[in-house]
Each structure stands twice: as C-alpha cells, then as structure tokens.
Amino acid sequence: MRVDLFDFDLPPESIALRPVSPRDAARLLVVRAGADPELTDAQVRDLPELLAAGDALVVNDTRVLPARLDGIRRRATSQGEGVQVEAMLHKRLGPDSWLALARPGKRLAPGDTIEFASPEGETTLAARVEAKGEGGEVTLRFAAAGPALDAAIAAIGHIPLPPYIAAKRADDAQDRADYQTMFAAHEGSVAAPTAGLHFTPELIERLAARGVETHRVTLHVGAGTFLPVKADDTADHRMHAEWGEVSPETAAALNAVRARGGKVVTVGTTATRLIESAASQEGLLSAWRGETDIFITPGTHFRFIDGMLTNFHLPRSTLVMLVAAFIGHETQKRAYAHAIASGYRFYSYGDACLLLPQARP
Question: Would the pTM of this model clear 0.85, i.e. be above it?
C-alpha cells in the first residue's frame, strides 16, 4: 500500500507534552468496528465496565533505559573543543559494548573517543567508536563494563523522550517516573510501551474484581520506533528487529482464556506484535523467545488477539498502519478524525483508544 494513504493533519496543540494525573483519567475512544463502526467517548478508568469476566489483558513489562547520552567526540589528531554528539543506545552487545544511533553520525569514525558526562559533570564515561554502520549506527566500547557501566549510564543518561516531545521541552526528573509503566520490570527499551502508562494499581484491582485477568510479556522497544517510514510503499519498508519473550505460563493462560470464550486484549502495539509473532496459523499461542521484525499492515490476518488498547499514533507510522490493519483503514481514519475534532491528546503522553473489531469466526 502507498504510505501516503496513512497521512493526516494533526494540530500541534493535540500533541501531549505531559500525561494526565491520575493516569487512568486519560480519555478513551472506544471503537467497535464493523459495517457501521461505533465510536464512544469514555475514560481509561471505565475499562472494567467495557470488558467482561473471563477476558484477559496482555501488558508489556519492559523497562525504559536512560538510553540517550550526550557527549563530545575527541580525536587524537585534532585540536579544539571537539564535536557535540548524541548517542541513543539500543542493543547491548556485551559487558562493555552497545549498538547506538549517533547524531551527527557523519562526524564519527572508527577510533574516535566520545566523552559522556552527566549534566552536572560529576559523572563521566568514555567510549571508543569500534565500528560504523548505516543510518548513523555505531558500535561503542565503553571504558567500564557490567554493573559499573550500568550504574554510569543510569547516572548520566537521559530518558529518551520521543522527538516530538524533546523538540518542545527538555526531559526532567518527572519523566523518569512518567515514562515508565507500573509493570516495568525488565530493563531494555529505548521507548515506553505507552498504552501501559494509563494503568494504576487501583485500576488493576478493579479489573481483577471484575474477573479480568492481567498477563505479562516482554518486548524491548528498539530505536527503530523513532525512525519514520521513508519508503513510498509499505512493501519496501523493513522493520528493525526487537527482542521479546512469551513465557510458557503466559501462553498456557491465554490459550485457556480463548478456549473458554474470553477475549484477549493486548495493551499496546508492542504486546500485539509479540503475541502475533508467537501465535500459530491455527490460533494457538506457544512459548516464544527471540527477535521479531513482524510488520502488520492492512490485509494481515490476526491469529490470536481479540482487542487492543493503544494510544493515537503518528501519521505515516508503522503503528497507525497496524491500527488500520486491525479495525480497517476507513474505520481508523474515521476514529482519528473524531479524536482530533473532539480534542483527544495524541502520542506517547496522550489519550488512548480501545479497538474492538468484529467477532472472530
């Protein structure tokens, strides 16, 4: 499909720069797809009334790294102040090495040293550029390793806010709490699974009282989530692989939910992509561990999930394509037009939608 079919105009004031408080006070657009789609305005805290006893939610328990590092490139053969660079860590290669996306990548070369520091300059960390790939990707080997490296990154790193927020304000201490879900347990993401940001312990308790189960999976969101779709046609776009895991216990529990007629509702596109990667053509879920580069576009057959809770996504993004695949492209466009006209807040810190397509056969 042509990528420009997924374009739309969004007023700048629709982009949320901070989350609402409490988290479950965010607005929720309920989209019931079908021949005559039904759109209902609600709030996230209404979820227990929108789901039924025996249903299950699937949440992503990844934890966001303070993965953005600011530094100065040094070369032994050059003089002067050096060049300011930013490195976005996105895949650990070993105790002392990471893959990173660097800006400006063209100013770096193998053998360069980058000196990173905390904003106060109290903690410093040096890394050598070991290799350089395409699109600004570099391999960094740090002067520290293991737990010492982890502690240094935690001290000097910034929460990697999405570009549409970072362009309007700097990250701060509040983002370290705001940009983590209540489920965050396994560190490894450079972006939050943002649909999970809407949940509170009280909401989970109310869902449990309703008879709605909550099950966890892990998908570490990679730096590819920040990259735009540059191809003109979806067939020419290649997804970056991301590591994920579905435990045997979670697979068995979700199979049991479907077997008894309950609905499986994924919380976010990350959980959706992981569950659909682990499901068979016959609609059974297996334990799964590895990397997935699944790209879900209109025409994709969904093997397992029955509903999805997700935020409102960027134009021309793989995420809005996934939404269109799940509820239909025309329904997606109608829902987004309603959300914009009704003042819903978009993107990572914004509001959510609950997508409920036609009943599975």
Answer: yes
